[in-house]
Design a protein that fits this description.
It is built from 1 helix and 5 strands; from the N terminus they run E-E-H-E-E-E. The chain is mainly beta and 69 residues long. Strands 2-1-5-4-3 form a 5-stranded antiparallel β-sheet, with no helix packed on it. It is globular and about 25 Å long.
């Protein structure tokens, strides 16, 4: 299992129904999660064997709470 970037949690623990920040691996940038897309994420996201998530042309490898908690 891949370790998420420093200070972020594994994608396996990500709840798309909650506000969050996500690390987008391809662009090495932080994306503010729009939980209004949660149902689409839940039904179409593909988790790879090392814990990354491919969704909507992006690859996420870690997440964090919006307020840092």
């Amino acid at each position: 299992m891949q370790t998420p970037p420093h200070g972020l949690r594994p994608m396996a623990e990500f709840n798309p129904y909650e506000p969050a920040i996500l690390h987008e691996m391809l662009s090495d940038s932080i994306v503010t999660w729009d939980w209004e897309q949660a149902e689409d994420f839940r039904t179409t996201a593909i988790y790879d064997p090392v814990g990354r998530v491919c969704w909507a042309g992006q690859v996420f490898d870690g997440w964090g709470n919006v307020l840092g908690g």
